[in-house]
Amino acid sequence: QVELVDSGGGLVQPGGSLRLSCAASGSVIPMNTMGWYRQTPGNQRELVATMTNGGTTNYAHFVKGRFTISRDTAKNTVALQMNSLKPDDTAIYFCNLLYPWSARNFWGQGTQVTVSS
Predict the structure, then answer these.
(1) 116: exposed, middle or buried (Cβ count in 10 Å: 0-12, 13-18, 19+)
(2) Would you say the C-alpha torsion 99, 41, 58, 55 has a positive or negative sign?
(3) Span 67-104, pLDDT tens digits
(4) Spatial separation of the C-alpha atoms in residues 44 and 90, rounded to whole Å
């Protein structure tokens, strides 16, 4: 079993920055993709950014140039640096770990990000 603990959310003004962090523990198989998704009330969870264990990244179009994903494969951690935040970025952000060959997913508990003046 794998457990993900994500953190780093909070309240920030438009144009500000936040850094989200996530650590995976348990029986983590190295060949995985880690990343971040977000969800707002009444909407489906959507991809924000992911990174494979080989370093290949995938970003949602609405965060390109503003958010940067990074990970430490040896420590099973992933981070999301969010800059130039907008009110539309307000959401609960969830850390995710995926085993691509089986489509098995694990999720963090979520961390609230609120962008407001």
Answers:
(1) exposed
(2) negative
(3) 999 999 999 999 999 999 999 999 999 999 999 888 89
(4) 14
